[in-house]
Design a protein that fits this description.
235 residues; alpha/beta; Protocatechuate 3,4-Dioxygenase, subunit A; five-stranded mixed sheet
Length: 235
């Protein structure tokens, strides 16, 4: 597992913590850090949660077990920690990921736009259990955007058999972010910014992208969202 990710602390709250460090001689209690955390906003699951889960459900969506060819697209990694509202790591939590492939298709019976075919090498769905430090990580491809949505990942966090969070993760700098209805629906600015992350080249000159994202969850289970099979994304 990689080095633990950092807290997502908005700039205004970073200034507050800096001033507290100066006035407290460098000592900040856990409760103060908890105040600095931004609760990850809930978002719709959408109509394309897989209705036929793949046999291979690990956290590497690039390659299906037993297949030699990898998925097409730009290799993209992201990870961090799952934290509760007090800033404590949430171990043994299951983090699920599903999203469109490089053609804009989901691993769903109705998840392919007209005239498009799903990449058969793309796993489409994966999950990982957080370790004692609450860490998780996914290796996948950069999802395609389509006319009705900006580029995004779908994520769910389950703990003790209860889904605590369903949300979506976005790419900073995407032109469609400003017009995306689901992203704009997040009224709290800090929460909205917390799910827009900067994906950078993994190394100088690399085509692979990487980002850090800490997921902050409340401990109250979500109300079950009724799943429905929607039409494929329009082209």
């Amino acid at each position: 597992m990689t080095t633990p990710a950092t807290f997502h602390i908005p700039q205004s709250r970073r200034k507050l913590l800096h001033s507290l460090l100066l006035t407290t001689g460098g000592f900040i209690t856990q409760s103060v850090y908890a105040e600095a955390l931004t609760l990850s906003p809930r978002a719709t699951e959408g109509p394309y949660y897989p209705d036929h889960l793949p046999l291979d459900q690990d956290n590497n969506l690039l390659q299906i077990m037993g297949n030699q060819a990898p998925a097409t697209g730009i290799i993209t990694e992201f990870g961090g920690r799952v934290l509760d509202v007090d800033g404590k790591a949430l171990s043994a939590a299951s983090v699920e990921l599903w999203h469109a492939d490089s053609h804009g298709c989901y691993i769903h019976s109705k998840g392919a736009p007209k005239g498009k075919e799903r990449d058969p090498q793309f796993q489409g769905f994966g999950k990982i259990t957080t370790n004692d430090k609450g860490e998780y990580r996914f290796r996948t491809i950069k999802p395609a955007a389509y006319p009705s949505r900006t580029r995004h990942f779908h994520i769910a966090v389950i703990h003790n058999g209860k889904r605590l969070l369903t949300t979506q993760l976005y790419f900073a700098g995407e032109p469609q972010n400003e017009k995306d209805g689901i992203l704009r629906r997040i009224a709290d600015e800090q929460q909205r910014l917390s799910v827009i992350r900067e994906f950078k080249p993994m190394t100088n000159g690399s085509q692979e992208l990487v980002a850090t994202w800490d997921i902050v969850v409340g401990m109250t289970p979500e109300d079950p969202e009724k799943r429905h099979a929607g039409p494929p994304p329009k082209r």
